[in-house]
Amino acid sequence: VCVLGYNTNKGQSITLRLRTDDMRGFRNYETIRKVLFHELSHNEFSEHDKNFYNLMNQIEKEANSNDWTRSKGHTIG
């Protein structure tokens, strides 16, 4: 099993594995984001239960709605 991230002491430290296993490149950005949302959810809930996954989905939804790279943006002029 390849652990892509872990959360120590409910957010005191969150570690993400950015490099691929062969150390030749970086993991996909979307994968890293999802692992971050997962680890942030562990700040509130330790177990992988319904509450945990509801919070993880809420974090992902809020992050997506505030992601400037996913919006069409506005032009001036």
* Residue-averaged pLDDT: 91
What does the overall shape look like?
flat
Q: What letter string, H or E per element, gives the SSE order?
A: EEHH
Portion of residues within helices: 25-40%
Strand order of the largest sheet: 1-2
Strand content: 5-15%
The first-to-last residue Cα distance is 53 Å
Low-confidence stretches: none
Q: What would you report as the Rg, rounded to the nearest angstrom?
A: 15 Å
The tally of helices reads: 2
Largest sheet: 2 strands, antiparallel
Computed structural class: alpha+beta
Q: Can you count the beta strands?
A: 2
Describe this structure in words.
By secondary structure, the chain is of the alpha+beta class. Helix content is 38%, strand content 10%. It has helices at residues 29-41, 50-65, and strands at residues 5-8, 13-16. It has a two-stranded antiparallel ribbon with strand order 1-2. A hairpin with a 4-residue loop joins strand 1 and strand 2 (13-16). Helix 1 (29-41) packs across helix 2 (50-65). 9% of the residues are buried.
Write the layout of secondary structure elements.
Layout: E1 5-8, E2 13-16, H1 29-41, H2 50-65
Antiparallel strand pairs: 1-2
Offer a concise description of the structure.
38% of the residues lie in helices and 10% in strands. It is built from two helices and two strands.
